């Protein structure tokens, strides 16, 4: 399950960055909200999957409450999931 969590974390992080870029593009003159609509739903699913998987693998990883809080907080910070992968998920 750790491998699945790492993949979801990577995809969630990438989708978050793409969604942020799409949000900036939307506000530019002549910008369109097409990409926000296109990326919003998949990112939402990945976000929810990340949170659920974090709760599921917490006992196996023996994360303290502090580390678990960092893992959850990382889901709402740009580049946060990449940090979690490097710091807490690599063997």
TrEMBL record:
Superkingdom in the source lineage: Bacteria
Compartments in which it is found: Cell membrane
InterPro entries: DUF3817_TM (IPR023845)
Pfam families xrefs: DUF3817 (PF12823)
GO CC terms of this entry: plasma membrane
Residue ranges annotated for the DUF3817 domain, each copy included: 2-88
NCBIfam families to which the protein is assigned, alphabetical: integ_memb_HG (TIGR03954)
Protein name in UniProt: Integral membrane protein
High-level lineage: Bacteria, Pseudomonadati, Bacteroidota, Flavobacteriia, Flavobacteriales
